[in-house]
Amino acid sequence: MLWIENLGVHPEHRRKGVGLKLLRRASLDAKKKGAKAVQSVVMPDAKDAVMLHKKVGFFIDGRKFAFLDLENFQ
Ligand SMILES: CC(C)(COP(=O)(O)OP(=O)(O)OC[C@H]1O[C@@H](n2cnc3c(N)ncnc32)[C@H](O)[C@@H]1OP(=O)(O)O)[C@@H](O)C(=O)NCCC(=O)NCCS
């Protein structure tokens, strides 16, 4: 399991795909190392973070944690 406590991109460099690349790369690296899932702390009212996690494929149900099953993630 990969656990992500926090993720941030400098305000001057947001909306350029950096967060997406970081989250995807970290998830794929974890999968290569044998992780089965990723759990990431996401405040439900942080719209940018919620949208980013959804775009990567995370499951979000309004709680503080986003969940990504790595079985079919590529
Ligand atoms: C959340 C955060 C890391 C996103 O990083 P980023 O590099 O700007 O994100 P990206 O450019 O890779 O965006 C990827 C997708 O996420 C979604 N997204 C990102 N920011 C968004 C916003 N402000 N509003 C709506 N959707 C957003 C979009 O779907 C976006 O795809 P698109 O640009 O093709 O529409 C960044 O906004 C940040 O550092 N926020 C403050 C810290 C924080 O809240 N961290 C999260 C804690 S886990």
Question: What does this 3D model show about the protein?
Answer:
There is one protein chain. This protein is of the alpha+beta class and 74 residues long. It has a single domain (2-7, 16-69), classed as 3-Layer(aba) Sandwich (Aminopeptidase). Helix content is 34%, strand content 18%. It has helices at residues 18-32, 47-56, and strands at residues 2-4, 37-41, 65-69. Helix 1 crosses helix 2 (47-56). The radius of gyration is 12 Å and the shape is globular. The model has no long low-confidence stretch (mean pLDDT 96). Coenzyme A is lined by residues 6-9, 14-20, 40-42, 46-49, 51-52, 55.
Question: Brief overview, please?
Answer:
The chain is α+β, with helices and mostly antiparallel strands. It contains 2 helices and 3 strands; from the N terminus they run E-H-E-H-E.
Please name the defining characteristics of this protein:
74 residues; alpha+beta; Aminopeptidase; 3-stranded mixed β-sheet; binds coenzyme A
